[in-house]
Amino acid sequence: xxxxxxxxxxxxxxxxxxxxxxxxxxxxxxxxxxxxxxxxxxxxxxxxxxxxxxxxxxxxxxxxxxxxxxxxxxxxxxxxxxxxxxxxxxxxxxxxxxxxxxxxxxxxxxxxxxxxxxxxxxxxxxxxxxxxxxxxxxxxxxxxxxxxxxxxxxxxxxxxxxxxxxxxxxxxxxxxxxxxxxxxxxxxxxxxxxxxxxxxxxxxxxxxxxxxxxxxxxxxxxxxxxxxxxxxxxxxxxxxxxxxxxxxxxxxxxxxxxxxxxxxxxxxxxxxxxxxxxxxxxxxxxxxxxxxxxxxxxxxxxxxxxxxxxxxxxxxxxxxxxxxxxxxxxxxxxxxxxxxxxxxxxxxxxxxxxxxxxxxxxxxxxxxxxxxxxxxxxxxxxxxxxxxxxxxxxxxxxxxxx
Length: 402
Known about the structure:
The protein is mainly α. The chain is 52% helix and 7% strand.
Protein backbone atom coordinates (compact mmCIF):
# COMPACT_ATOMS: atom_id res chain seq x y z
CA UNK A 1 0.00 0.00 0.00
CA UNK A 2 1.32 3.43 -0.95
CA UNK A 3 0.75 4.97 2.51
CA UNK A 4 2.55 2.10 4.21
CA UNK A 5 5.50 2.48 1.87
CA UNK A 6 5.58 6.20 2.53
CA UNK A 7 5.47 5.53 6.26
CA UNK A 8 8.48 3.22 6.17
CA UNK A 9 10.40 5.64 3.99
CA UNK A 10 9.71 8.73 6.06
CA UNK A 11 10.28 6.92 9.32
CA UNK A 12 13.71 5.79 8.12
CA UNK A 13 14.72 9.19 6.84
CA UNK A 14 13.36 11.60 9.39
CA UNK A 15 16.13 11.70 11.95
CA UNK A 16 18.82 9.53 10.42
CA UNK A 17 22.08 10.83 9.04
CA UNK A 18 21.95 12.14 5.52
CA UNK A 19 22.03 8.69 3.96
CA UNK A 20 24.36 6.88 1.66
CA UNK A 21 27.57 8.36 0.29
CA UNK A 22 27.14 9.58 -3.25
CA UNK A 23 29.38 8.60 -6.11
CA UNK A 24 32.06 11.22 -6.47
CA UNK A 25 31.46 11.37 -10.23
CA UNK A 26 28.82 13.90 -11.23
CA UNK A 27 25.72 11.91 -12.23
CA UNK A 28 24.48 14.85 -14.33
CA UNK A 29 26.63 15.27 -17.46
CA UNK A 30 26.90 18.73 -19.00
CA UNK A 31 27.35 18.55 -22.76
CA UNK A 32 28.36 21.61 -24.83
CA UNK A 33 24.85 22.78 -25.73
CA UNK A 34 23.57 22.09 -22.24
CA UNK A 35 26.47 24.15 -20.90
CA UNK A 36 25.56 27.12 -23.12
CA UNK A 37 21.94 26.93 -21.98
CA UNK A 38 22.89 26.45 -18.32
CA UNK A 39 25.19 29.50 -18.52
CA UNK A 40 22.19 31.55 -19.64
CA UNK A 41 20.03 30.28 -16.76
CA UNK A 42 22.83 30.88 -14.27
CA UNK A 43 22.77 34.52 -15.35
CA UNK A 44 19.01 34.59 -14.86
CA UNK A 45 19.31 33.02 -11.39
CA UNK A 46 22.48 34.81 -10.34
CA UNK A 47 22.90 38.15 -12.13
CA UNK A 48 19.58 39.67 -13.22
CA UNK A 49 17.02 40.82 -10.67
CA UNK A 50 13.26 40.58 -11.17
CA UNK A 51 13.25 44.22 -12.27
CA UNK A 52 15.13 43.19 -15.42
CA UNK A 53 13.98 41.43 -18.58
CA UNK A 54 16.49 39.76 -20.89
CA UNK A 55 15.82 39.90 -24.64
CA UNK A 56 17.31 36.79 -26.21
CA UNK A 57 17.15 34.21 -28.99
CA UNK A 58 14.84 31.35 -27.92
CA UNK A 59 16.81 28.68 -29.81
CA UNK A 60 20.32 29.84 -28.90
CA UNK A 61 19.45 31.17 -25.47
CA UNK A 62 22.99 32.33 -24.75
CA UNK A 63 22.53 34.95 -27.49
CA UNK A 64 21.45 37.85 -25.30
CA UNK A 65 20.51 40.91 -27.33
CA UNK A 66 19.86 43.36 -24.51
CA UNK A 67 18.59 43.75 -20.95
CA UNK A 68 15.73 46.08 -20.06
CA UNK A 69 16.12 46.90 -16.36
CA UNK A 70 13.15 48.93 -15.19
CA UNK A 71 14.86 50.16 -12.03
CA UNK A 72 17.94 51.34 -13.91
CA UNK A 73 15.83 52.91 -16.65
CA UNK A 74 13.68 54.73 -14.09
CA UNK A 75 16.76 56.29 -12.49
CA UNK A 76 18.23 57.26 -15.84
CA UNK A 77 15.20 58.31 -17.86
CA UNK A 78 12.25 58.80 -15.45
CA UNK A 79 13.75 60.92 -12.64
CA UNK A 80 13.76 57.88 -10.38
CA UNK A 81 9.98 57.44 -10.55
CA UNK A 82 9.02 53.74 -10.83
CA UNK A 83 7.25 52.71 -14.02
CA UNK A 84 3.67 51.48 -13.81
CA UNK A 85 2.88 47.96 -14.99
CA UNK A 86 1.49 49.35 -18.23
CA UNK A 87 4.57 51.51 -18.79
CA UNK A 88 6.83 48.52 -18.15
CA UNK A 89 4.99 46.43 -20.70
CA UNK A 90 5.11 49.21 -23.29
CA UNK A 91 8.82 49.80 -22.68
CA UNK A 92 9.72 46.14 -23.03
CA UNK A 93 7.56 45.73 -26.14
CA UNK A 94 9.16 48.81 -27.69
CA UNK A 95 12.67 47.44 -27.24
CA UNK A 96 11.77 43.90 -28.30
CA UNK A 97 9.92 45.07 -31.41
CA UNK A 98 12.80 47.35 -32.40
CA UNK A 99 15.33 44.53 -32.10
CA UNK A 100 12.98 42.24 -34.02
CA UNK A 101 12.89 44.86 -36.78
CA UNK A 102 16.68 44.99 -36.73
CA UNK A 103 16.87 41.22 -37.23
CA UNK A 104 14.39 41.37 -40.09
CA UNK A 105 16.38 44.16 -41.76
CA UNK A 106 19.66 42.27 -41.43
CA UNK A 107 18.09 39.14 -42.91
CA UNK A 108 16.71 41.13 -45.82
CA UNK A 109 19.45 43.66 -46.48
CA UNK A 110 22.58 42.15 -45.00
CA UNK A 111 25.19 44.63 -43.82
CA UNK A 112 23.35 47.49 -45.53
CA UNK A 113 20.92 47.27 -42.61
CA UNK A 114 23.63 48.72 -40.36
CA UNK A 115 22.81 52.13 -41.81
CA UNK A 116 19.54 52.11 -39.85
CA UNK A 117 21.17 52.52 -36.47
CA UNK A 118 22.80 51.07 -33.33
CA UNK A 119 20.29 48.29 -32.77
CA UNK A 120 21.16 46.65 -36.08
CA UNK A 121 24.83 46.95 -35.12
CA UNK A 122 24.12 45.42 -31.71
CA UNK A 123 22.30 42.43 -33.22
CA UNK A 124 25.08 41.74 -35.73
CA UNK A 125 27.72 42.08 -33.04
CA UNK A 126 26.02 39.58 -30.73
CA UNK A 127 25.34 36.99 -33.42
CA UNK A 128 28.85 37.33 -34.83
CA UNK A 129 30.38 35.91 -31.64
CA UNK A 130 29.65 32.36 -32.77
CA UNK A 131 29.68 30.91 -36.26
CA UNK A 132 26.55 28.88 -35.54
CA UNK A 133 24.70 31.97 -34.33
CA UNK A 134 25.77 34.09 -37.31
CA UNK A 135 24.62 31.36 -39.67
CA UNK A 136 21.24 31.24 -37.88
CA UNK A 137 20.85 35.01 -38.19
CA UNK A 138 20.99 34.85 -41.99
CA UNK A 139 19.31 31.47 -42.66
CA UNK A 140 16.51 30.95 -40.11
CA UNK A 141 13.40 32.70 -38.88
CA UNK A 142 14.04 34.28 -35.50
CA UNK A 143 11.38 35.50 -33.08
CA UNK A 144 12.88 37.02 -29.98
CA UNK A 145 11.87 36.01 -26.49
CA UNK A 146 12.06 37.83 -23.14
CA UNK A 147 12.95 36.27 -19.79
CA UNK A 148 12.51 37.94 -16.42
CA UNK A 149 15.50 37.92 -14.09
CA UNK A 150 15.21 35.84 -10.92
CA UNK A 151 18.34 36.52 -8.88
CA UNK A 152 16.53 38.16 -5.96
CA UNK A 153 13.79 35.54 -6.00
CA UNK A 154 16.38 32.76 -6.14
CA UNK A 155 18.00 34.04 -2.94
CA UNK A 156 14.61 34.08 -1.23
CA UNK A 157 13.88 30.59 -2.55
CA UNK A 158 17.22 29.36 -1.23
CA UNK A 159 16.23 30.51 2.25
CA UNK A 160 12.82 28.84 1.93
CA UNK A 161 14.51 25.65 0.76
CA UNK A 162 16.45 25.29 4.01
CA UNK A 163 13.27 24.32 5.80
CA UNK A 164 12.53 21.41 3.47
CA UNK A 165 15.74 20.16 1.86
CA UNK A 166 17.01 17.96 4.74
CA UNK A 167 13.81 15.90 4.52
CA UNK A 168 13.58 16.01 0.73
CA UNK A 169 17.21 14.99 0.22
CA UNK A 170 16.79 11.96 2.48
CA UNK A 171 13.64 10.90 0.63
CA UNK A 172 15.68 10.85 -2.57
CA UNK A 173 18.76 9.23 -1.02
CA UNK A 174 16.69 6.48 0.55
CA UNK A 175 15.40 5.62 -2.92
CA UNK A 176 18.96 5.47 -4.24
CA UNK A 177 18.62 8.73 -6.16
CA UNK A 178 21.02 11.71 -6.22
CA UNK A 179 19.94 14.20 -3.58
CA UNK A 180 20.64 17.10 -5.95
CA UNK A 181 17.54 16.15 -7.93
CA UNK A 182 15.63 18.08 -5.26
CA UNK A 183 16.87 21.27 -6.97
CA UNK A 184 14.21 20.64 -9.60
CA UNK A 185 11.88 22.33 -7.11
CA UNK A 186 13.68 25.62 -7.86
CA UNK A 187 12.81 25.24 -11.54
CA UNK A 188 9.24 24.20 -10.86
CA UNK A 189 8.18 26.62 -8.14
CA UNK A 190 11.16 28.38 -6.50
CA UNK A 191 10.25 26.33 -3.41
CA UNK A 192 6.86 28.02 -3.19
CA UNK A 193 4.51 25.45 -1.65
CA UNK A 194 1.50 27.53 -2.74
CA UNK A 195 2.51 27.68 -6.41
CA UNK A 196 -0.38 27.07 -8.82
CA UNK A 197 -0.19 27.21 -12.60
CA UNK A 198 -2.90 28.29 -15.02
CA UNK A 199 -3.06 24.72 -16.42
CA UNK A 200 -3.72 23.19 -13.00
CA UNK A 201 -0.26 22.14 -11.77
CA UNK A 202 -0.02 22.64 -8.03
CA UNK A 203 2.43 22.66 -5.15
CA UNK A 204 6.18 22.84 -4.83
CA UNK A 205 6.70 20.05 -7.38
CA UNK A 206 3.95 21.30 -9.75
CA UNK A 207 2.18 18.00 -10.29
CA UNK A 208 -0.83 17.95 -12.58
CA UNK A 209 -3.84 16.22 -10.96
CA UNK A 210 -3.81 13.20 -13.26
CA UNK A 211 -0.10 12.56 -12.84
CA UNK A 212 -0.27 13.17 -9.09
CA UNK A 213 -2.89 10.45 -8.61
CA UNK A 214 -0.33 7.87 -9.77
CA UNK A 215 1.87 8.69 -6.78
CA UNK A 216 -0.28 10.27 -4.06
CA UNK A 217 -3.80 11.02 -2.88
CA UNK A 218 -5.75 13.74 -4.69
CA UNK A 219 -9.46 14.01 -3.96
CA UNK A 220 -11.98 16.64 -2.80
CA UNK A 221 -10.65 16.72 0.78
CA UNK A 222 -6.99 15.58 0.49
CA UNK A 223 -4.47 16.89 -2.03
CA UNK A 224 -0.99 15.62 -1.24
CA UNK A 225 0.51 17.82 -3.96
CA UNK A 226 0.23 20.62 -1.40
CA UNK A 227 2.43 18.81 1.12
CA UNK A 228 6.06 19.54 0.17
CA UNK A 229 7.28 16.29 1.75
CA UNK A 230 4.59 13.95 0.44
CA UNK A 231 4.91 15.50 -3.01
CA UNK A 232 8.69 15.02 -2.78
CA UNK A 233 8.12 11.32 -2.30
CA UNK A 234 5.96 11.30 -5.44
CA UNK A 235 8.61 13.23 -7.36
CA UNK A 236 11.29 10.78 -6.26
CA UNK A 237 9.24 7.80 -7.41
CA UNK A 238 8.48 9.49 -10.72
CA UNK A 239 12.09 10.44 -11.41
CA UNK A 240 13.27 6.95 -10.48
CA UNK A 241 10.80 5.47 -12.95
CA UNK A 242 11.96 7.93 -15.62
CA UNK A 243 15.58 6.89 -15.06
CA UNK A 244 14.79 3.17 -15.28
CA UNK A 245 12.88 3.75 -18.50
CA UNK A 246 15.24 6.23 -20.21
CA UNK A 247 18.57 5.09 -18.68
CA UNK A 248 20.24 8.53 -18.61
CA UNK A 249 19.66 11.44 -16.23
CA UNK A 250 19.47 14.23 -18.83
CA UNK A 251 16.57 12.39 -20.47
CA UNK A 252 14.97 11.38 -17.15
CA UNK A 253 15.07 14.94 -15.78
CA UNK A 254 13.68 16.37 -19.02
CA UNK A 255 10.92 13.78 -18.84
CA UNK A 256 9.75 15.36 -15.58
CA UNK A 257 8.58 18.23 -17.79
CA UNK A 258 7.98 16.55 -21.14
CA UNK A 259 6.86 13.10 -19.99
CA UNK A 260 8.69 9.77 -20.38
CA UNK A 261 6.64 8.91 -23.46
CA UNK A 262 7.60 12.20 -25.05
CA UNK A 263 11.29 11.62 -24.40
CA UNK A 264 11.12 8.04 -25.73
CA UNK A 265 9.60 9.47 -28.91
CA UNK A 266 12.40 12.06 -29.12
CA UNK A 267 15.03 9.32 -28.80
CA UNK A 268 13.32 7.20 -31.47
CA UNK A 269 12.91 10.14 -33.84
CA UNK A 270 16.49 11.42 -33.60
CA UNK A 271 17.98 7.94 -33.23
CA UNK A 272 20.18 8.75 -30.25
CA UNK A 273 20.12 9.42 -26.52
CA UNK A 274 22.62 12.26 -26.98
CA UNK A 275 21.00 15.26 -25.33
CA UNK A 276 22.75 17.82 -27.54
CA UNK A 277 21.56 16.11 -30.72
CA UNK A 278 18.01 15.89 -29.37
CA UNK A 279 18.05 19.60 -28.47
CA UNK A 280 19.24 20.55 -31.96
CA UNK A 281 17.40 18.07 -34.14
CA UNK A 282 14.14 17.06 -32.48
CA UNK A 283 11.21 19.08 -33.79
CA UNK A 284 7.83 18.59 -32.18
CA UNK A 285 5.19 21.18 -31.23
CA UNK A 286 5.01 19.74 -27.71
CA UNK A 287 8.79 19.90 -27.24
CA UNK A 288 8.83 23.63 -26.67
CA UNK A 289 11.04 26.12 -24.90
CA UNK A 290 10.32 24.82 -21.39
CA UNK A 291 11.11 21.21 -22.28
CA UNK A 292 14.24 22.10 -24.24
CA UNK A 293 15.61 24.09 -21.34
CA UNK A 294 14.42 22.03 -18.39
CA UNK A 295 17.59 20.00 -17.83
CA UNK A 296 19.79 23.06 -18.29
CA UNK A 297 17.68 25.03 -15.82
CA UNK A 298 18.09 22.22 -13.32
CA UNK A 299 21.88 22.24 -13.80
CA UNK A 300 21.95 26.03 -13.35
CA UNK A 301 19.75 25.90 -10.24
CA UNK A 302 21.97 23.22 -8.74
CA UNK A 303 25.10 25.28 -9.35
CA UNK A 304 23.69 28.59 -8.13
CA UNK A 305 22.17 27.09 -4.99
CA UNK A 306 25.45 25.36 -4.17
CA UNK A 307 27.30 28.66 -4.48
CA UNK A 308 24.73 30.65 -2.51
CA UNK A 309 24.03 28.32 0.35
CA UNK A 310 25.67 24.94 0.44
CA UNK A 311 29.37 25.74 0.57
CA UNK A 312 30.42 25.22 4.18
CA UNK A 313 26.82 25.38 5.42
CA UNK A 314 25.64 22.53 7.64
CA UNK A 315 21.92 21.79 7.47
CA UNK A 316 19.88 20.98 10.54
CA UNK A 317 18.57 17.42 10.34
CA UNK A 318 15.04 18.35 11.44
CA UNK A 319 14.68 22.13 10.99
CA UNK A 320 10.88 22.13 11.22
CA UNK A 321 10.95 20.00 14.41
CA UNK A 322 8.24 17.69 13.16
CA UNK A 323 7.33 14.05 13.27
CA UNK A 324 5.29 11.86 10.94
CA UNK A 325 2.61 9.69 12.52
CA UNK A 326 0.93 6.84 10.72
CA UNK A 327 -2.78 6.38 11.40
CA UNK A 328 -3.17 2.65 12.02
CA UNK A 329 -6.98 2.76 11.90
CA UNK A 330 -9.12 4.89 9.62
CA UNK A 331 -9.91 8.19 11.36
CA UNK A 332 -11.70 11.35 10.40
CA UNK A 333 -10.42 14.87 10.94
CA UNK A 334 -13.11 15.31 13.54
CA UNK A 335 -11.86 12.26 15.43
CA UNK A 336 -8.24 13.38 15.20
CA UNK A 337 -9.09 16.74 16.70
CA UNK A 338 -11.41 15.23 19.31
CA UNK A 339 -9.27 12.29 20.47
CA UNK A 340 -5.67 13.49 20.21
CA UNK A 341 -3.70 16.45 21.57
CA UNK A 342 -3.49 18.03 18.12
CA UNK A 343 -5.99 20.87 17.70
CA UNK A 344 -7.60 21.97 14.45
CA UNK A 345 -5.33 24.97 13.92
CA UNK A 346 -2.18 22.87 14.31
CA UNK A 347 -3.55 20.10 12.11
CA UNK A 348 -4.20 22.65 9.33
CA UNK A 349 -0.83 24.35 9.75
CA UNK A 350 1.26 21.19 9.57
CA UNK A 351 -0.82 19.26 7.05
CA UNK A 352 -1.29 21.43 3.98
CA UNK A 353 -2.63 18.45 2.06
CA UNK A 354 -5.87 18.54 4.11
CA UNK A 355 -8.15 20.82 2.10
CA UNK A 356 -10.76 23.19 3.58
CA UNK A 357 -13.42 20.54 2.84
CA UNK A 358 -11.67 18.21 5.27
CA UNK A 359 -12.56 20.63 8.06
CA UNK A 360 -16.11 21.31 6.92
CA UNK A 361 -18.27 19.17 4.62
CA UNK A 362 -15.86 16.19 4.74
CA UNK A 363 -15.04 16.57 8.41
CA UNK A 364 -16.41 13.10 9.20
CA UNK A 365 -14.88 11.47 6.11
CA UNK A 366 -12.42 8.78 7.16
CA UNK A 367 -8.75 9.17 6.35
CA UNK A 368 -7.58 5.68 5.36
CA UNK A 369 -5.46 3.45 7.55
CA UNK A 370 -1.86 4.16 6.63
CA UNK A 371 -2.43 7.87 6.09
CA UNK A 372 0.23 10.03 7.69
CA UNK A 373 -0.15 13.27 9.56
CA UNK A 374 2.64 15.66 10.45
CA UNK A 375 2.75 17.03 13.98
CA UNK A 376 5.12 19.20 16.04
CA UNK A 377 7.70 17.18 17.95
CA UNK A 378 6.46 18.73 21.19
CA UNK A 379 3.19 16.78 21.06
CA UNK A 380 4.37 13.82 18.99
CA UNK A 381 4.53 11.17 21.70
CA UNK A 382 1.19 12.09 23.24
CA UNK A 383 -0.42 12.10 19.80
CA UNK A 384 1.06 8.70 18.97
CA UNK A 385 -0.29 7.20 22.19
CA UNK A 386 -3.73 8.66 21.57
CA UNK A 387 -3.84 7.27 18.03
CA UNK A 388 -2.64 3.83 19.16
CA UNK A 389 -5.43 3.70 21.72
CA UNK A 390 -8.03 5.08 19.33
CA UNK A 391 -11.46 3.51 19.53
CA UNK A 392 -14.28 5.14 17.52
CA UNK A 393 -16.70 4.46 20.37
CA UNK A 394 -14.68 6.56 22.78
CA UNK A 395 -15.07 9.89 21.00
CA UNK A 396 -17.62 11.33 23.43
CA UNK A 397 -15.64 10.15 26.48
CA UNK A 398 -12.43 11.68 25.18
CA UNK A 399 -14.18 14.98 24.42
CA UNK A 400 -15.40 15.13 27.99
CA UNK A 401 -11.92 14.50 29.37
CA UNK A 402 -10.44 17.26 27.23
